[in-house]
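Render this sequence as a predicted structure.
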Amino acid sequence: MGYLANRQRLIAENVANSDTPGFAPRDLKPFTVSNKSQTAAGAQGTSAIPSIGGPSPGLAPSGGMAMTQSGHMDVPNGKGPSYKTTGSPDSEMTIDRNGVVLEDQMIKLTDTRMDYDAAISFYQASLGMLKTAIKKPGS
Protein backbone atom coordinates (compact mmCIF):
# COMPACT_ATOMS: atom_id res chain seq x y z
CA MET A 1 0.00 0.00 0.00
CA GLY A 2 2.97 2.29 0.61
CA TYR A 3 4.13 1.72 -2.96
CA LEU A 4 0.67 2.63 -4.27
CA ALA A 5 0.49 5.77 -2.11
CA ASN A 6 3.89 6.89 -3.40
CA ARG A 7 2.90 6.12 -6.99
CA GLN A 8 -0.27 8.17 -6.60
CA ARG A 9 1.78 11.09 -5.26
CA LEU A 10 4.18 10.86 -8.21
CA ILE A 11 1.31 10.80 -10.72
CA ALA A 12 -0.15 13.87 -9.01
CA GLU A 13 3.22 15.62 -9.44
CA ASN A 14 3.18 14.71 -13.14
CA VAL A 15 -0.31 16.19 -13.55
CA ALA A 16 0.63 19.31 -11.58
CA ASN A 17 3.60 19.86 -13.91
CA SER A 18 1.71 19.21 -17.13
CA ASP A 19 2.30 22.85 -18.18
CA THR A 20 5.92 23.08 -17.02
CA PRO A 21 8.29 23.47 -20.00
CA GLY A 22 10.77 20.61 -20.29
CA PHE A 23 9.12 18.47 -17.60
CA ALA A 24 9.47 14.72 -18.13
CA PRO A 25 6.88 12.54 -16.38
CA ARG A 26 8.10 9.91 -13.92
CA ASP A 27 6.63 6.69 -12.63
CA LEU A 28 7.65 4.07 -10.11
CA LYS A 29 9.30 0.83 -11.06
CA PRO A 30 6.62 -1.91 -10.99
CA PHE A 31 6.30 -3.46 -7.53
CA THR A 32 7.38 -7.05 -6.95
CA VAL A 33 8.37 -8.88 -3.79
CA SER A 34 12.00 -9.14 -4.91
CA ASN A 35 11.93 -5.47 -5.94
CA LYS A 36 10.68 -4.53 -2.46
CA SER A 37 13.47 -6.42 -0.69
CA GLN A 38 16.06 -4.70 -2.88
CA THR A 39 14.62 -1.25 -2.24
CA ALA A 40 14.58 -1.82 1.50
CA ALA A 41 18.28 -2.63 1.29
CA GLY A 42 18.91 0.56 -0.69
CA ALA A 43 20.00 -1.26 -3.84
CA GLN A 44 17.72 0.63 -6.20
CA GLY A 45 19.70 3.80 -6.73
CA THR A 46 19.53 7.34 -5.50
CA SER A 47 16.35 8.71 -7.07
CA ALA A 48 14.08 7.36 -4.37
CA ILE A 49 10.82 8.74 -3.09
CA PRO A 50 10.52 8.58 0.70
CA SER A 51 7.41 7.21 2.31
CA ILE A 52 4.72 9.86 2.61
CA GLY A 53 2.55 10.71 5.56
CA GLY A 54 3.24 12.07 8.99
CA PRO A 55 4.25 10.35 12.18
CA SER A 56 2.14 7.38 13.13
CA PRO A 57 2.21 4.72 15.84
CA GLY A 58 5.39 2.68 15.67
CA LEU A 59 7.52 5.47 14.28
CA ALA A 60 10.61 6.69 16.05
CA PRO A 61 10.65 10.39 17.06
CA SER A 62 12.81 11.18 14.03
CA GLY A 63 10.03 9.90 11.74
CA GLY A 64 11.76 6.58 11.03
CA MET A 65 10.49 3.17 11.97
CA ALA A 66 11.11 1.95 15.51
CA MET A 67 11.84 -1.68 16.36
CA THR A 68 9.59 -2.24 19.38
CA GLN A 69 9.87 -6.06 19.47
CA SER A 70 12.68 -8.49 18.75
CA GLY A 71 10.63 -10.07 15.91
CA HIS A 72 10.53 -6.85 13.88
CA MET A 73 12.58 -6.68 10.70
CA ASP A 74 15.52 -4.29 10.70
CA VAL A 75 15.12 -1.44 8.22
CA PRO A 76 18.33 0.34 7.16
CA ASN A 77 18.51 4.01 8.19
CA GLY A 78 15.39 3.53 10.34
CA LYS A 79 13.23 4.61 7.39
CA GLY A 80 10.63 2.65 5.51
CA PRO A 81 11.21 1.34 2.01
CA SER A 82 11.80 3.76 -0.81
CA TYR A 83 11.08 3.06 -4.45
CA LYS A 84 13.11 3.85 -7.53
CA THR A 85 11.56 6.22 -10.01
CA THR A 86 11.80 5.59 -13.69
CA GLY A 87 11.37 7.94 -16.59
CA SER A 88 7.93 7.49 -18.02
CA PRO A 89 8.28 8.41 -21.67
CA ASP A 90 4.88 9.11 -23.11
CA SER A 91 4.18 8.98 -26.80
CA GLU A 92 3.56 12.71 -27.13
CA MET A 93 5.68 15.75 -26.41
CA THR A 94 4.63 19.37 -26.73
CA ILE A 95 6.60 22.11 -28.40
CA ASP A 96 7.97 23.23 -25.03
CA ARG A 97 9.35 19.67 -24.49
CA ASN A 98 6.78 18.74 -21.84
CA GLY A 99 6.11 15.00 -22.01
CA VAL A 100 3.06 14.72 -19.75
CA VAL A 101 -0.02 13.25 -21.43
CA LEU A 102 -2.93 13.85 -19.06
CA GLU A 103 -4.99 10.96 -20.42
CA ASP A 104 -2.15 8.51 -19.71
CA GLN A 105 -1.69 9.93 -16.24
CA MET A 106 -5.41 9.56 -15.49
CA ILE A 107 -5.30 5.92 -16.62
CA LYS A 108 -2.32 5.30 -14.31
CA LEU A 109 -4.12 7.07 -11.48
CA THR A 110 -7.24 4.93 -11.97
CA ASP A 111 -5.17 1.72 -12.08
CA THR A 112 -3.36 2.75 -8.91
CA ARG A 113 -6.65 3.52 -7.14
CA MET A 114 -8.13 0.15 -8.16
CA ASP A 115 -5.01 -1.67 -6.91
CA TYR A 116 -5.20 0.27 -3.62
CA ASP A 117 -8.88 -0.60 -3.20
CA ALA A 118 -8.09 -4.27 -3.85
CA ALA A 119 -5.32 -4.21 -1.23
CA ILE A 120 -7.67 -2.63 1.32
CA SER A 121 -10.32 -5.23 0.47
CA PHE A 122 -7.86 -8.11 1.01
CA TYR A 123 -6.72 -6.56 4.28
CA GLN A 124 -10.31 -6.19 5.54
CA ALA A 125 -11.14 -9.77 4.52
CA SER A 126 -8.12 -11.11 6.39
CA LEU A 127 -9.10 -9.10 9.47
CA GLY A 128 -12.59 -10.58 9.22
CA MET A 129 -11.14 -14.09 9.11
CA LEU A 130 -8.95 -13.35 12.14
CA LYS A 131 -11.94 -12.01 14.09
CA THR A 132 -13.89 -15.16 13.22
CA ALA A 133 -10.98 -17.35 14.28
CA ILE A 134 -10.58 -15.73 17.71
CA LYS A 135 -14.27 -15.85 18.65
CA LYS A 136 -15.31 -18.16 21.42
CA PRO A 137 -17.08 -21.28 20.19
CA GLY A 138 -20.85 -20.82 20.10
CA SER A 139 -20.82 -17.02 20.22
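Summary. The two ends are 34 Å apart (CA to CA). The longest strand covers residues 83-87.
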